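Bench notes, afternoon.
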Amino acid sequence: MFSDDLPERVSTGVSGLDTVLGGGLAGGCVYLVEGTPGTGKTTLALQFLRAGAARGETGLYITLSETETELRAVARSHGWTLEGLAIHELSDGTLAPDDRQSVLLPSEIELGETIERVRDVIVRMSPARVVFDSLSEMRLLADEPLRYRRQILALKQFLCERRCTTLLLDDKATSQGDAQLHSIVHGVISLHQVAQEFGIERRHLRVIKMRGMKFQGGAHDLVLDTGGLRVFPRLVAAEHRTEQVFSPPRTTGTPALDELLGGGLSPGTNTLILGPSGIGKTTTAVSCVLAALERGEPATYFLFDEGVSTLVNRSARLGLDLQPHIDSGALQLVQVDPAELSPGEFASRTVDAVRRHRSRFLVIDSLNAYLLAMPGQPHLLLHVHELLSFLNHQDVTTVMLMGQHGLVGEVRSDVDLSYLSDVILTLRFFEAGGEIRSAVTCVKSRVAAHERQIRELKLGPRGLNVGQRLADFEGILSGLPHYRGGTPMFDRPNPPGVA
């Protein structure tokens, strides 16, 4: 374990990674960054050196696998310069294929010369940060595991004595020696890349080991894009707990819907709106958002399924004008492409909406598209659980929409999230008088004594309308209703004798 007088943490140059590591790397130590080609090792290494250069620290990139020209091309692709950094190539001469020794084994001469050249350049430059790229060539030069381990141990001791914070890159070309490397270095950061059948590759990062340092375990999504690596720390709701104070329900903007919900929507809870396509889930959510904005609560609407302009124009035609709140900055409409977004990045955007935008009302429209961004159903449930727990701890009112398969008769969902939801609103189509109509009911509420009734729902030029209890219908939720009396409905006169 490290002693109490350890050097201060040094930044990796990747803010999300610094968060995962609890503040950065311990200075003067040696770390292994491993991953197959294309996972972002070189980019991470350059960000690490650039972060040191910004603090006035000398940075040295020692390469056996790439030329200086190639490294500068990588930097240019990100819009960087490598000013203030030194690049030292070890491939010239030392690894020439025509060099052969007649008495000693070639590996003995080549590896010894390589190590000496590394020592010489470090002594001459006295860098604070060093990147060694890559260990795969060192492993090939050593020819045997024992000699390789001894050389790495000697190199580690030398670097630690010089107080160099060092990243050793390994492309995992062979499995030989990996376990030995993990036991030698102070920490191990592993980068992974998974190809998808459609959309971008999914990359993530794991911190396997950090000797004497507390870090956040698990897989953390990352993006390799112009400008470098961005790491999205795994959302752990327990780390964001706050003391919650009970708040009374707040209006949805529709009095009859408030009655159905037992008073409205309560801060610190989440509501799941279920229903088939076209029944009015989005309009219901927009109506609730508009009510929150009108009482001064900033809001964020994550839109997976349709374009921003389509939503704004359609809402305006229904009397729900969002444009003034967009112009004032109170409402964020965020277009999300599930094929290009990782679950970790979406969680990061959600945290930013709460922390930076100060949103008190949040909509996810819809969970069906969010599901497409997940690696599998078990991961979906865990991601959604952590996300909703975080939002509840922050006293945010959350509304989630989920489209169901089927229009009438049996309908079903892609995944059952009912146990994660505090409130569930169910919308259904039904037929009456030769017309297709809509009904709404609250089937669950953990926070209020809600109605157990089924009411008619109608979308019109004045937004959302919720009618009277459909007392004389049976089978509405099953999609096969039967009329048993004279319940008045929208746009239809009461039957004789009905008030």
